[in-house]
Amino acid sequence: MRAEVIAVGTELLLGDIPNTNAQTIGRELARIGVDCHVHTAVGDNVERIAEAISAALARADAAIITGGLGPTQDDVTREAIALATGDRLVVDPALVVELEAKFARFGRPMAQINLRQTERPERARSVANPLGTAPGVIAEHDGGVIYAIPGVPSEMIAMLQASVLPDLARRAGATSSIVTRETRVGGMTESAVAEALGPMWERLGPGDVTIAFLAGKGEVRVRLTAKARSEAAASSRLDEVEGEVRAVIGPAVVGGGEETAELVIGRLLDERGSPWCTRPIRRRRCSASRRR
Fold first, then answer.
1. Best exposed site among 13, 94, 213, 254 by fewest CB in 10 Å?
2. Residue 190 placed within a domain
3. What is the pTM of this model?
4. What number is the average pLDDT over the span 147-163?
5. Residue 211 in contact with residue 222, Cβ under 8 Å?
6. Is residue 282 part of a domain?
């Protein structure tokens, strides 16, 4: 199964806030074995959001939208889903009762504009929000499914875990898992690492394990991604391929995962009983540099 993530909010396009929701959703989709090839950010505009939804469903089985479900005039995700699906917005009486009860529990008066949050596309169903006032939406359209959840990270995570991921897993049928792992390389350029692993790249092709190269901070990270029926099976396959990577790169491998070059050097010095320091002390000076 394939899903795409659509983050709604002009503030994202202006760089006012980072799109951390897409990062979280991408990681959770990988955990349940759902492929995610495209992330989209779109401003608070009904037509452009609707276009993004239609484009996503043309490429994938599901579109997960975050943001635009609040009560204000610029929260237009509900309208965009209705436009994309050819549906009309209706007020859900059950949501009205639930929203009024929430404000009563908060001990605050409810503004009339909050009733916008009780609207949904007529053929869609609502998703309960245990933390806030904005219900989510699940709408089926043209063989695909649209999920809309709030952009507030805490609410997004709660609804993603409780409603979206279980529904996606049910629709996907057979479960799988996507696992990633990194091998850190020092003293070699990105192009040299890619050239050394070229034969392995060609042999693996678009199979169950893929390779990517990420250069920065004086090192090259070789990221391996495997997809299998279970996390254990994917991890076992990564063990095999990572072993090959380490054999090809040799002593230039300085660590894996969160094990940085500095940690490896410190551990090796400790094992040998060698003194080491990380800053100048009087006339005695120790320093280390990392080359890309």
1. 94
2. yes
3. 0.75
4. 96
5. yes
6. no
